[in-house]
Structures are given as structure tokens and as C-alpha cells.
TrEMBL record:
Membrane-spanning ranges: 356-382
Keyword Oxidoreductase listed: yes
Species of the source: Artemisia annua
Limits of the FAD-binding domain: 4-317
Pfam families with a match to the protein in the record: FAD_binding_3 (PF01494)
Keyword vocabulary terms for this entry: Membrane, Monooxygenase, Oxidoreductase, Transmembrane, Transmembrane helix
The keyword Oxidoreductase is assigned to this record: yes
Family named by the database record: Belongs to the 3-hydroxybenzoate 6-hydroxylase family.
The protein's name in its UniProt record: Aromatic-ring hydroxylase-like protein
GO MF annotations, alphabetized: FAD binding; monooxygenase activity
Length: 396
């Protein structure tokens, strides 16, 4: 494998966005992805609120993406048990993007050959003589880059190298899917959630034919391999939603089988985020590798986009010397840039993950006492429940 100065591990949302942010600042990077091709189907779609759109604007891809997804105008929560519902206008720009559109757009904006597929990182060690990181891949090859950015998701090898504690699991799982209505659907452009007992179904139209939905349900331990079968995934939802409205059951019945995915919900605890070491020398984490969180606020992906902008801005400001052949890494400057990035991001992700954690606990709480505690904490700590979307990651 050829050596390069700046290496990113993982070509998910955060890895691609980080490579693009660096590219916009004139910094070359190489992304190593373990899959053989772009992972643009898993997870079907992703809701992006105005903080995420700000980051996409800074990355220069927001306008392309706006054409792919309609504005979501309303937030509606329906309690099927008691027949109560609450609806309010959606704050700020909100759209639901097909993951394929987001991933493909980020990828297409990168210089050719930025992403190397089929390259799975196995371990990182520090060379005792040079103090540089040595990346070992499972095919036996190794490289010694100057800078390593771990965007390798919730089960991150780079986070392990930094001795971050392993993420925890919510006692919940999420199924996601897309349903295509060839003659058009009749749903409002709203983020609608339907709750009954411990089950929750969410629905957001992407455009006039395509609808994204998710189903959150209590986790029941079973052999993990059964979730590779889309029919099992679809059945698991339909079996739980016996007395849900017909239009919801039909939406799940008609789902595009390729789009179905099942995920256990992981999170890094807010207190681990408060105290964790996010970089060592010139090795750092971003995206889910840093702050994997439950989907209850729909902010994990947007937080990764924000990371990309803040990290590239600080790296460009402090981490490079200009030489005739281009920009060259200045190791001390990179460490200073990483320090600033962590300072800028730590409290943002602590607050996001705390609000997400409390919202998830409220959803899963079985006793009234726990519910009351979660509601009280949410009220005291997050008076404005959608204050998190006002965050601006700043210019690139
Ligand atoms: C049910 C559910 C719903 C969600 N809904 C939303 C939402 O509405 N809005 C939102 O903003 N977020 C949402 N999220 C969160 C969002 O999906 C994640 O935060 C986001 O995908 C994380 O991106 P990432 O690039 O950091 O990590 P990932 O998407 O996990 O990407 C990591 C990449 O690294 C690669 N990789 C891993 N290990 C290695 C290795 N050793 N070597 C090489 N490559 C490696 C993987 O193959 C992958 O391509 C949701 C999550 C779930 C589970």
C-alpha cells in the first residue's frame, strides 16, 4: 500500500465528509474502507435538521442534496393507546435524505481514487523509534501515515487504540426501510411518529413517491445472523404492529426488501464523552467512532458532518506547512489543531448525547418514576427541546 500523509479510516458519512472538508481546504487525504464498494444502501435514509444542512452547505454539497428530498413541514406525535396526538410546525430546514444520495454525493465530490476499498484496518501501534502510527491491515499490509482520523463507526478500532470505553447498548433495536409508491403516496410532508406500548413507528416522505420509515422495538436476544434475512426483519415489525393503522402495516408490507436493515442501538455514555481521550499524538476519532448515540434525536449523522467541518478547519489553520510541492503535515501543529477540535466538539457532543440518552430512556422506561425523572431532567437541562438544531459548526 502506498504511504500518504493523512489517512482516514472508514468511508461512511463522517469519513467521506472529512475527506471532502480537507479537500476543500487543499489537503489531500486517503480513505481506507473495509467494504468492497461504497456502503450506500445500509440504513436506507437519514433525517437532517438545520444544523446538518449548515454543515452540508459548508461542504458545498447542500444544494445538490436539496433537490433530492422535499422539505418536512410538520412534526406529529400520535399516541395510539389513548388516541391523543400533538402536532407542530417543524423548526428549521428538515429533510430526509436517502443515504445513497448523501453518500454518493459526498463521494462524487472527492478527487478520483481518494477512497481505497477492501482495506480493513486490523490494529494500530506506535513505532517506538519514530513515534509514528503504524496501521496494520487484515491482508497483512501496513502503512505509516503522519495523521490518522478514525471514522470507523461505533465499533471503532481507532477508538480502542485511544482506550475509549466500549459503547453500551440500549435495550432497543431499530428497523429501517424505504417504501416506494409508484403512483404517489398521500402522506403529508411531516415527521409522524406512532407509539403504542413499547413500539414506535416513524414515517417521513422523501419525495412524492418514496417514504422512509423506522420501527423501534424492545431488543429480544436471538441469533444475530437471522437479521441478515430481510423477510425476517419485515416480519419482526409486522408481528409487533398487529393493531396499528392499516396504512402503516401496508407501508411495511410493501417495503423495498433491499432497503431493510436491523440495528442494535449503541451509545457512548455522556460521562465517557466528558472524560474520554479523543486523540493521542496524531491519531484522532470523529463521527460515531467518537460519539455513537441512539437515534432518538436523529443527530448522529449530522454531528459527524459537523465534526468534519470543525476538524478540517483546525487542521488547515494549524497543521500544515506550505512547501512548493503542496501542503505538508507539521506534526506539532496537528496536535494543536486536534486539541482545539476536541475543545470545540466535546461539550457539543456531551449535550447531544445526554439529551439523546434521556429521550431514549424516556421511551424505554417501564416505571412511572423513571419516566418522571427523565422528563424532569430533560426539562431542566434542555428547556428548548430543539435547541440542538441551532448549533452552527462555523465556516470551513
Ligand atoms: C436506527 C438508526 C437511525 C438513525 N437515524 C439518524 C437520523 O435520522 N439522522 C442522523 O443524523 N443520524 C441518524 N442515525 C445515526 C447515523 O446513522 C450515524 O451517526 C452515522 O451513520 C455515522 O456515520 P459514521 O461515518 O461516523 O460511521 P458509519 O456510518 O458506521 O461508517 C463507518 C465506516 O467505516 C468502515 N469501517 C469500520 N471499521 C473499519 C475498519 N476496521 N477498517 C476500514 N473500514 C472500517 C465501515 O465499513 C463504514 O463504512 C441513525 C442511526 C440508527 C442506528
Amino acid at each position: 500500500m502506498e504511504d500518504s500523509e493523512v489517512v482516514i479510516i472508514g468511508a461512511g458519512i463522517c469519513g467521506l465528509a472529512t475527506a471532502l472538508a480537507l479537500h476543500r481546504k487543499g489537503i489531500k487525504s486517503v480513505v481506507f474502507e473495509r467494504s468492497e464498494s461504497l456502503r450506500n444502501i445500509t440504513g436506507s435514509a437519514i433525517g437532517i435538521r438545520q444544523n446538518g444542512w449548515r454543515a452540508l452547505d459548508r461542504l458545498g454539497v447542500a444544494d445538490i442534496l436539496r433537490h433530492t428530498a422535499a422539505l418536512v413541514k410538520r412534526d406529529r406525535f400520535v399516541l395510539l393507546d389513548g388516541g391523543k396526538q400533538q402536532a407542530m410546525p417543524m423548526d428549521g430546514e428538515t429533510r430526509c435524505l436517502r443515504r445513497k444520495d448523501l453518500i454518493d454525493t459526498l463521494f462524487d465530490a472527492l478527487p478520483p481514487a481518494t477512497v481505497k476499498f477492501g482495506c480493513q484496518l486490523e490494529s494500530i501501534k506506535i513505532d517506538p523509534n519514530t513515534t509514528k502510527p503504524v496501521l496494520q491491515f487484515i491482508d497483512g499490509s501496513s502503512i505509516i501515515p503522519k495523521v490518522v482520523i478514525g471514522c470507523d463507526g461505533g465499533k471503532s478500532i481507532v477508538a480502542d487504540f485511544l482506550n475509549l470505553r466500549p459503547p453500551k447498548m440500549f435495550p432497543l433495536c431499530g428497523v429501517r426501510g424505504l417504501t416506494n409508491y409508484p403512483n404517489g403516496h398521500f402522506f403529508e410532508y411531516e415527521f409522524a411518529r406512532f407509539k403504542k406500548g413499547n413500539n414506535l413507528v416513524g414515517r417521513i416522505p422523501i419525495n412524492d413517491k418514496l417514504v422512509y420509515w423506522f420501527c423501534a422495538q424492545p431488543y429480544v436476544p436471538r441469533d444475530g445472523r437471522i437479521w441478515e434475512d430481510p423477510e425476517v426483519i419485515r416480519r419482526s415489525c409486522l408481528d409487533l404492529l398487529g393493531d396499528y393503522p392499516q396504512e402503516i402495516k401496508e407501508m411495511i408490507e410493501k417495503a423495498d426488501m433491499e432497503s431493510l436493515s436491523f440495528s442494535r442501538l449503541r451509545y457512548r455514555t455522556p460521562w465517557d464523552l466528558l472524560t474520554g481521550t479523543f486523540f493521542k499524538g496524531t491519531v484522532i476519532v470523529a463521527g460515531d467512532a467518537m460519539h455513537v448515540m441512539g437515534p432518538f434525536l436523529g443527530q448522529g449523522g449530522s454531528a459527524g458532518l459537523e465534526d468534519a467541518v470543525v476538524l478540517a478547519r483546525n487542521m488547515a489553520k494549524l497543521g500544515f506547512n506550505h512547501v512548493e510541492s503542496g501542503k505538508k503535515v507539521a506534526v506539532h501543529g496537528i496536535e494543536e489543531a486536534f486539541n482545539l477540535y476536541v475543545k470545540e466538539r466535546r461539550m457539543r457532543v456531551v449535550r447531544l448525547s445526554l439529551q439523546t440518552y434521556l429521550t431514549g430512556m424516556l421511551f424505554g422506561a417501564s416505571s412511572w418514576l423513571n419516566k418522571v425523572i427523565c422528563i424532569a431532567l430533560l426539562f431542566v437541562l434542555f428547556k428548548n427541546g430543539s435547541g440542538h438544531i441551532d448549533y452552527d459548526c462555523g465556516d470551513l
